[in-house]
Amino acid sequence: MxxxxxxxxxxxxxxxxxxxxxxxxxxxxxxxxxxxxxHQNVDWYRLVHVDYKxxxxxxxxxxxxxxxxxxxxxxGTPAPVMSLVHESGPWNATWIWLLSGGPADLxxxxxxxxxxxxxxxxxxxxxxxxxxxxxxxYNDLVASSTSYIVRRWSExxxxxxx
Length: 162
Prior knowledge:
By secondary structure, the chain is an alpha+beta fold. It has a domain at 44-151: Alpha-Beta Plaits, CATH 3.30.70. The protein has helices at 2-28, 57-75, 112-125, 128-141, and strands spanning 44-52, 82-85, 93-99, 142-151. The chain starts with a helix and ends in an 11-residue tail after the last strand.
C-alpha cells in the first residue's frame, strides 16, 4: 500500500509540473499563437488492405476482375485509383479509392454510389440474390482486412526531371 501511495504521489507531482510547464508556455507564447490554417489542395483516400485465406488470392482477384469491376463500370461508380497485389508482408492486396467528397464521404452508412454499384451487380448477375451470393463468396475468401483514411501530402516538392 505504501508503494502505491508513493507512485500516486509521484504521478501527481509530475502531472502538476507538466500542467504548469505547458500552461507557462501557453501564456508566454500567447502573443505569438498561430492562426488556424487548413491544408491546401488536399486529396483524401481510403486504403483497404486485404489478407485472403491461404491459396485464395487468385480466386478473390478473379471475382473482382470478372464480377465487381464490370458492375462498377456499368454503374459509373469510381473504381480504385490504384490496386496493388503484395509480394511480401501480411497483406495480399491493397485497394485505394479517392474520396472525391473528402472526409464527408465517410458520413454515409450506405452511399448513393454503393446503391448504384449493387443495382448494377444485381442486374449483371441476374438478381439481388445472385449478387449477394457473389459478395458472400468473396467475403468467404477474406481472412482479414483493415482500412485507413489518408491525405495526400501536397507539401511535397515536385521531383526534378532528370
